[in-house]
Each structure stands twice: as structure tokens, then as C-alpha cells.
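Need C-alpha cells for this chain, all 748 residues.
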Amino acid sequence: MTETTPVTELTETEAQAELARLAAAIARANIAYHRDDAPEISDAAYDALKQRNAAIEARFPGLKRGDSPTEQVGAAVAEGFGKIRHEQRMLSLENGFDDSDVTDFVARIRSYLGHEGDLAFTAEPKIDGLSLSLRYEDGFLVQAATRGDGETGENVTENARTIADIPQTLTGAPALLEVRGEVFMSHADFAAINSRASAAGDKTFANPRNAAAGSLRQLDPAITRARPLRFFAYAWGALSEPLAATQFEAIARLGALGFQTNPLTRLCANVTELLDQYRRIEAQRATLGYDIDGVVYKVNDLGLQRRLGFRAATPRWAIAHKFPAELAWTRLEAIDIQVGRTGALSPVARLAPVTVGGVVVSNATLHNEDYIAGRDSAGAPIRDGKDIRVGDWVQVYRAGDVIPKVADVDLARRPPEAARYVFPETCPECGSPAIREPGDSVRLCTGGLICPAQAIEKLKHFVSRGAFDIEGLGVKQIEMFFADSLLPVRAPADIFTLQARDAGNLAKLANRDGFGKRSAEKLFAAIHDRRRIGFERFLFSLGIRHLGEVAAKDLARHYGSWTALAAAIDAAHPAALLHLRADAAEAAERAAAAQAGRRAEVAKTRMQIMAEAAPEARAAWEEMLSIEGVGAVLASSLVTTLGAGGHERQAVEDLVAQLTEITPPEARATQSPVAGLTVVFTGTLEKMTRAEAKARAEALGAKVAGSVSAKTDLVVAGPGAGSKAKQAEALGVRIIDEDAWIALAGEA
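Here are the C-alpha cells for all 748 residues:
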């Protein structure tokens, strides 16, 4: 089961695990957005998490968690602010993403009320800011609170008093009036604040919403006063008497009391009018001068609102119709190629700066050479086959409102001199050939560590948290040492010779900018501490393409030491090269078969090529493929990258020579009935997840493989076991069911 597995295909066990993952992810996002004003994911990504959670709960209602995100609003208040408990909860809104969601919303309202007559709604822009509650008693502002978790908010009363749009006193208001609305910052004010911050060398804000939230939630009201915050009123909470009989009239009453209300709020009689107003507001979005991310619809009759009531976290009588990812047109000024840690050549569009969703965009990803050419990896046309050229006017969007991407090209505005882009076949950094492996959409530099772009990115990865994690040696320090002519660090082993080279160098590190005697000593000590490293962290640190932390741990457990893995790599190398040759032959066979209108015989082709491998090479290759979590793509990447005689292999051997110990994974148990056995799990396990079974087997000293071979000792087969069970039968491997496995493993 993966995070993209359709909800309809989830088993009950998988659904339960997925709900736990979603609850944790949404809780983290709520804290980052509502409490810390530092969102970690986009609105679109957040909405997708909420939608998936709701869909799973709808399919498995009995699995709904006590901390279900459908029951949550916002996040707990931050430390440093007093707390205010809302007399009436401040709720969030249900989201809609297309016209059918709006039609369904209105239909649900009518069905719930049994209402067939006229039914009016208000439609207003959804401001992308920070929710705020203002409490007035006898016409005086007595407290202001953020939404917080919906139940309790932060006391920001003194900060709210500094906002010009918020009246300090009211005339003609109910004795108790709680006004709710949104604090925001205009685009012009946001640009001015960032300009001043940049000139002063201070940190700038990512977007107006963050700027507004960060400004309101200052512990020093003087800072808030210096920030140009605005406020739109759009709702109310506790009241001593009604404001009006309808939503529209109540908003007008708030305006008469002195609050700013949104001038685009309209009264609509049906779905058609709601959608028309949505289109009008969407068309004006780029010129409003402040950020909005949708249109909010509310039942106009307040009596009907009361009858409709609330769900756990949202009112039944309102919905937010969200905008799709915002689009903008701008000129493509250049296409640059960036070379990453694994050698991948990534094209980047350099754009005339344009504001997309409140963020100034000047770069966008172009994915790969096929995307630029107007085709997908299979050769089918995308964008109606329109290629992308320097000088084009291109449509830019922020995928999930985060990563800028190019969506379309305006051929009518293409300059006559614009030439078709030719993707480089050599690395722009080192001149090495840049190749495309069969079935891969990415072109790779073959230079390895002789390529400066790969070398520096590999070094940054090498010292990262999941790898060697050397304190005091981060990205900035790596860039400094890489460019240094006196104490250069160009390969991992150079890090461990740094102190010795410094001792013999007149220009001591202690005399460099950013370093003193104490900081240099601490760095050398931190490097020394990492001369002893776990095997799995060592493998992950090498930055091999497709080799992540999980697969590194699987390889470390299987081989136990670098010496054993290196021997396996050398033994499997001929078979890995044949595997790549077979991939190329398969691709050619498919193309020839398609042209001739016949069926491709790719399996036969692969068998013929792989038969050329010597038995010992084939055995080493098949053993590597049998490791759970290691497939042919990863195995071929590992073997061809670290093959004997290459630059990468020499760099690793140089590194090993500088280390005192590469510690093996935790010793496997030796006293259990399955210790030392190679076990394969296949089919559906009903009493535990596959991950639980694997972890338990490894804890008992077994090796878990992903495929069946002559070295397999035991196959645990659940319902639905297919080819692996048949292969085990053919090889005479013992097959047992899940209950027998539990008994054998001592779990009964």
C-alpha cells in the first residue's frame, strides 16, 4: 500500500494505517500554518490530504479515529500569548473544487430542509489571511483572539488595537457583539515590507498571508503597529441581540457600524448566479490588490442557517469554492540546465518575473527534454504537441500552489526567430557524455565525481542528517571548502584529512572568516567522531541514484559489511551490464514490433541476452534482486556506479581507508527457530501487515527477500499468493500459511 493507492483498493488494515498517517500529517500542517505561520505544504496539498481522509472515513466509518481531522479546526495556541476561550467555536469551512460540488451543496441544503421554494445565498471572496475574533461590550473593544484550535485562541487584543480598519468603539451596536473576519496585507504593502527587510539584510516573508499572520502575532504591539495590516469583517459570534434577519443584511449592518466589508459580496438566487459570481471574482483576482483563494457561499436566511446547524468542524450552511492553482503568462527568457547529485540534467525556465498567487516567480521547472519537446515519455503529444522555445510566452502555474511549472505556450506570440530547443548530450558542467538509459526520461551525466556539480551536491548529501551528519559542516561550509584552493574538499575522504592538511598549512582554518580557534577545533572533533559510522548510514551517504535510507538498511542487513557488498557488486557487474543491454534491446524490439504490427517478444529477447552471463555473475545478480526493497533499477544503479575501477569506487575506497570502523547492523537473533533462514512473504497477510511481518522476521534473525530463488528457505503464503508460490513449488521450497508462520516464530 502506498500513499497513492486508490481508496477503493484499500483493505481495512491498510485503511486504518492510512488514517493514522493522514491524521499525523494534517496535524503537523495545522500547527505549521495556524500556529507557527510557516506553512510546510501548499493549500492544494493540504486539501488533498483532507479529501483522502474523508473518503477513507466514508468507506470505513467504523475506523474513524478519535483525533480525526474532520473533527479538528486550526491548531493549539503558541506559547507566549494568553489564551481566550471562544464563547462560540470558530469553525472552518467545507471545501468545494468544481461546479458539481456547488450543485451538490445546494441540493443537500434543499434535501436537509425539505425546501423546494426560493433559496438565496451570499457569495463573497475568501480572503487568504488570518482569522480574528473581536469582542465588543457596550460599544467598546474589550478583547481580540485568533482562531487557534477553534475552541481557544491567542489573546492579541493590544495588537488588534493598532489596525486602522478595526474600530475601537461602536455606536448603535448590540450590548454584546463578537465580530469575526480576516486580517490580511495588500500586495503593495507586502512588497514594500519585503523591500525594506531585504535592504536591511533581514529575513523576508514568503507571501502576504505569512506577513499578516506574523505581524499580528507579535509579542510586541509596536511591531504590529509598524506593519500595514487590514481587516475585512464577514461574520459574527456571540450576540446579545440579532444583527438582522439575513446574512446579506447583517453584513450591511457591520459596514454601517464602521467595519470594512468586502465590496464584491453579492446576493444570488440559484446555482447559476453563484457560479457566475465565482467567475466574475476569479477574473478580477489578479487585480484586487490582495490574496484570495476562492469564493464562500452561505445560505442567506439566518433562520435557515440555525435549522441547518453544524457538523463537527464545519457549518452545513456554507461552503468555500476554491480556485484552481493560479495561472499567469510571462516570457521565457532562457533555459538553463542544472546538474544534480545523481547526475540528472534538469532544465529550468528563466522567466520574466511574474506574480503567481502572491509569490513572485522567476524560475520554473521544465521536467525533462521530452516535456520541452511537447511529448510524454511514451512519445504521445502533450500541450497538443507544442514545444517550448526561448522567447515564447508561457503559462505558469504553481503546482499545489508551491512549485512553479510551465503549463502552456501561446504560439500566436512566438517570435519568428525562436528556434527549437536542442537538449544537450554532454554535461554543461564537465563535458562528459549525458546519456538516457532505456525507459528513463532523464538524461544523466556520466562524469561522476569528476563533474563539479555532482561532486558538490554529493558532498552536501554526504554530510546531511541521514548520512554522516557532521556537526558544523553544513551546506555553506561544504561550498566554502569545495572552492578553497588551500584546504580543498572535493571528495568525502578529503573531509577526514582536513585536520592533517590544516596542520601543515600556513593559512590556518582558525584564521578564516566564520571560523576561530574554538570553532575549528570543534569541527575537527566532530569529524573525528564520525570516523566510526553504521553501515546503513555509510551506504546512504554515498548518494547512489535510487538508494534511499530504507533500501540502504536492507542492503546493510543482507550483506553485513562493505567488504561483502563490494564483492557482490564486482561479481554481479557483468550481469548488471547485460541487464541494461537487455533493457535497450527490449525498447528496440517494442518499437520494431509496433512498426511491423506484430507482438513484441521482449521476454525472449531478455532471456537470450541474460543467458550470456556466467553462472556466478547471474547468481550474484539474482541474490541482490532477491533482497526485499531492492529491484532491478536500484541494483543496476548500485552495481554500475560502484563497479571496480571507476571514479566512484575509488572515492569510496579512499573514504573507507579514512574510517576506523563501519559498524554492522544489529546482530540478528540466533536462538529462534527462523534464525538464519531466508524468508519470502507473498499473498495477503490477514493478522499483520507486511511491514510488521518483515520487522518481526528480521528481529528473530531471518533474512527477508522480495523474490524466490534457490537460496530461499521458506515462503509464507497468504490468500492470493501467485507466481512466487508457484516458483517455490517448482524449486522445492517449503511453503507455509500465516498461522504456521506465527507458530514457528513463537508468536502463538
